[in-house]
Amino acid sequence: MSYEDTVVPKVKKNADGSRRRVKASDFDKISKEILITACSVYRCLIVTQAPFPDSVAAETKLAKEAWCEACQLKGVDVKLTPLAVNMLLKRASHVRGELKTKMRPLTASFHSFRSSNSMEVIRSNRDLAERLKIGLIFVFKDPSSKSGIYKTELLQQGINSMWFLNRSDEGVIYHKYFDPIPIKTIVLVLTAIECCVDEWSQGIKEDIKFTSAGYGAVYNHHFSSLQRFDERTAPYKLLSKICINLHDTARFHAGVASLIPLSATSQAHIDDAAFEDAI
User: Fold this and answer.
1) Residue 53 vs residues 18, 68, 118, 184, 262: alpha-carbon distances, Å
2) How far apart are alpha carbons 22 and 25 in whole angstroms?
3) How far apart are the C-alpha atoms of 160 and 3, rounded to whole Å?
4) Where is each DUF6532 domain found (predicted)?
5) For the segment 33-92, what is each residue's pLDDT rounded down to a tens digit?
6) How far apart are CA 255 and CA 234, in angstroms?
7) What is the mean predicted confidence (pLDDT) over 28-33?
8) Residue 68: its pLDDT value, please?
9) Is residue 247 within 8 Å of residue 179, measured between CB atoms?
10) For burial by CB atoms within 10 Å, which of 96, 117, 127, 262 has the most?
11) Do the beta carbons of residue 130 and residue 114 sit within 8 Å?
């Protein structure tokens, strides 16, 4: 099925005559289905390929890729319009904000930050945030001994919550983007964790926006660090193993872990005692 003409939504206006913001419901049925699917694919592309795109051109390229993928999945060919592109591009900041929102309570609980007016608690929170930031020890499985680098359980919790909550989540539906968990996705989650830790830097939780301007450089620093880790441990393929394990564990959390089939040559049998009990 092919749509030769560009699909343009009907422009609706507010009561005062101004143009209303375009929504998915403004598109025709086919285009709406493509747009909804493209938005999901675009979210996956952002978090796995370019969490903090360095230009509008880079974002637009991913938007076009997402639209083409959506058309293929739906078996139709609908031209991408500038309005649809704009709707897709907004998903970049949305998905980062969603990740940050999910990581905030996970980070607070995992590292035992507490909300209180007590000066003692406030001081404890401030000291904890400072310790976690020194040497980025929050990336370790055991921060106190600095062992298990990039194996913090909080990383797994974030991936589970964001993309593998259940068998209908994006990490399962669009598994080709997450199998194994991409390095850039790991870096994005680590950057979100750092943002959440920063929110406690004054001892009282404050809201810090998880934006490209504020955390793009932090993301690049984590990415560089992970690359160095990969280079130094290349003979052991440690990073590759971490990526695979994160994905397999996340799938298990979503309830879609692969089942190992029983061998066709299994020698299992019913014991004779069971036959005797039946008499």
Assistant:
1) 32, 19, 41, 12, 46
2) 8
3) 38
4) 38-229
5) 999 999 999 999 999 999 999 999 999 999 999 999 999 999 999 999 999 999 999 999
6) 32
7) 85
8) 97
9) yes
10) 96
11) no
In the block, residue with structure tokens 């932090």? 218
How far is it between the farthest Cα atoms of the chain?
86
Amino acid at 43: R
Give me 123's structure tokens.
């001081």
Burial class (CB in 10 A: 0-12, 13-18, 19+), 5: exposed
Residue type, 206: E
Structure tokens at 149: 């680098």
Tokens of 143: 């921060």
Please give, one letter per residue, the 3-state secondary structure of the chain.
CECCCCCCCCCCECCCCCECCCCHHHCCHHHHHHHHHHHHHHHHHHHHHCCCCCCHHHHHHHHHHHHHHHHHHHCCECCCCHHHHHHHHHHHHHHHHHHHHHHHHHHHHHHCCCCCCCHHHHHHHHHHHHHHHHHHHHHEEECCCCEEECCCHHHHHHHHHHHCCCCCCHHHHCHHHCCCCCHHHHHHHHHHHHHHHHCCCCCCCCCCCCCHHHHHHHHHHHHHHHHHHHHHCHHHCHHHHHHHHHHHHHHHHHCCCCCCCCCCCCCCCCCHHHHHHHC
- Mean pLDDT of all residues in the chain? 88
Secondary structure, 3-state, 76-98: CECCCCHHHHHHHHHHHHHHHHH
CA distances from 232 to 121, 142, 181, 218, 244 (A): 40, 20, 20, 21, 19
